[in-house]
From TrEMBL:
Residue span(s) of domain AMP-dependent synthetase/ligase: 115-326
Domain of life: Bacteria
Keywords recorded for this protein, A-Z: Ligase
Source species: Rheinheimera tangshanensis
Gene Ontology MF: a single term: medium-chain fatty acid-CoA ligase activity
Protein name: AMP-binding protein
Gene3D superfamilies, A to Z: N-terminal domain of ligase-like (3.40.50.12780)
Lineage: Bacteria, Pseudomonadati, Pseudomonadota, Gammaproteobacteria, Chromatiales
Length: 456
């Protein structure tokens, strides 16, 4: 199998990256930079913690680690110090890389599975030391599938609208490198003039985002922007409301652009299914069909296969992009493939008469805040660590926190700010309320149903 980090399937003279400073690097330039950085890495296989920004230096380090078989944990370069320390204490990486600076922490030989390549947080906010273990094959197979169903060519120009340590953002990088295309690297927000100057100046051909990004573009009136170079839009990271979906369907029709609604999980290296753009109108709300090389099924509570349409069960996915497994300790990094290409998604749903899939809910305690998956257990742990008798619940794009006893408004705002800063989620998505008592079951555990009822 050919791998995108070898940069050997492309026209060496074509531009691979452009950044905010106007710097342009060809594939030949990138290859040279990767070789130079590779020479600085140790010869012994080492575990790397890579602090990632949307810049050329982070990409060079990422490609060099993959090329030299150094497994890497990818985290936000601005990750909270407490969470970063927890990751370090849990996994004891040999190297910490930020930009192109390498800090050697120790030289002990760690037990790392031969196929282990990349580890990403199970939470988009990297608020948990629980990681998804991905192989080189996972990365490349998922990139290959994306290239096929989006019809990517070396004429594409993508732009970063999400962090590269987030599986959706990373998949855009991987798939466009596979296609020999160009990527514009920026940390500028979609609401900034700088971002739209790059879109126009670099003739960007695609825009991608989570629901929050599309909702923001709708508020900004997407029709006002000059997007004449844009060929298609892709949306994933959670369900987009029908009103916004209809708006973009209409705008894309007017602008002669395609709109792809997609579904995925970090556990599947980002992508599981997509809704062909020509079926958007008659399959509104569907997550579509499996990506090339993948298979989706519905299973009942006894793990039996559900073949009848419109019967709800849990979604199972099978494909070569399914993770090796989870990691919660250093010893877990020595394990091989625990899943054998099968993923129990934790999402409930059904398929219709035409084989298109729909999601109806989640069977796990996760919600998505503007596309970032947030563990309600992680929120509960932060609250408990701060001495609070409290519990969290929520729905997509809204986290509810209930605290026992009477508290002043400024204290409630302080709690919201704490969770926002720790997990890097928008403070406006957090609602904190007081209750006399947290509802509990007879065994002392929080009564999740009663807690959810408090949301009103």
């Amino acid at each position: 199998m050919s791998y995108f980090w070898n940069l050997d399937l492309t026209d060496a003279a074509s531009v691979a990256f452009t950044d905010e400073s106007g710097r342009h690097l060809s594939y030949a330039d990138v290859n040279k930079e990767v070789d130079l950085f590779s020479a600085l890495l140790p010869s012994n296989r080492s575990l790397v913690l890579l602090k990632v920004r949307n810049d050329i230096a982070s990409v060079i380090a990422y490609l060099a680690c993959l090329r030299n078989n150094h497994p890497l944990i990818m985290v936000d370069s601005d990750l909270n110090d407490g969470l970063l320390d927890k990751l370090y204490q849990t996994y004891q990486p040999n190297l910490i890389i930020e930009g192109l600076k390498i800090h050697v922490t120790h030289q002990r030989q760690l037990q790392l599975a031969p196929e282990l390549a990349v580890m990403l947080s199970t939470s988009g906010s990297t608020g948990s030391p629980k990681l998804v273990r991905l192989s080189k094959e996972n990365l490349q197979q998922n990139a290959n599938s994306i290239v096929v169903y989006l019809g990517l060519t070396d004429n594409e120009v993508a732009i970063t609208t999400m962090p590269l340590h987030y599986s959706f953002g990373l998949s855009i990088l991987n798939s466009h490198l596979t296609a020999g295309a160009k990527i514009v690297l920026t940390s500028s927000s979609l609401i900034s003039k700088e971002f739209w100057h790059l879109v126009q100046g670099e003739s960007v051909t695609s825009l991608s985002g989570v629901p929050y990004i599309f909702q923001m573009l709708k508020k900004m009136r997407y029709e006002r922007f000059n997007t004449s170079s844009v060929r298609y839009l892709t949306q994933a990271g959670g369900r987009l409301d029908n009103e916004t979906l209809n708006y973009f369907y209409q705008q894309c029709s007017i602008k002669n652009q395609k709109l792809y609604v997609m579904y995925g999980q970090t556990e599947a290296t980002a992508r599981i299914s997509y809704l062909p753009c020509e079926r958007l109108a008659d399959k509104l709300g569907s997550i579509g069909i499996p990506i090339p090389g993948g298979e989706l099924t519905i299973r009942d509570i006894d793990n039996g296969l559900v073949t009848e349409p419109h019967v709800e069960g849990e979604l199972f996915y099978k494909g070569p992009n399914v993770m090796l497994g989870y990691a919660e300790s250093l010893s877990d990094l020595s394990f091989g493939d625990h899943n054998a290409g099968v993923l129990k998604t934790g999402d409930l749903g059904y398929q219709d008469n035409d084989g298109f899939f729909y999601i109806t809910g989640r069977s796990k305690r996760f919600i998505k805040i503007y596309g970032l998956r947030v563990s309600l257990d992680a929120v509960d742990n932060i609250l408990a660590d701060n001495g609070l008798s409290a519990a969290a619940t929520g729905i997509d794009d809204k986290l509810f926190i209930f605290i026992e006893g009477h508290r002043q408004d400024d204290f409630l705002q302080h709690v919201a700010a704490l969770i926002s800063a720790t997990l890097k989620i928008n403070i406006n998505s957090i609602a904190v309320h007081c209750v006399d008592l947290i509802p509990r079951m007879v065994n002392g555990k929080v009564n999740g149903k009663a807690l959810s009822d408090l949301m009103g």
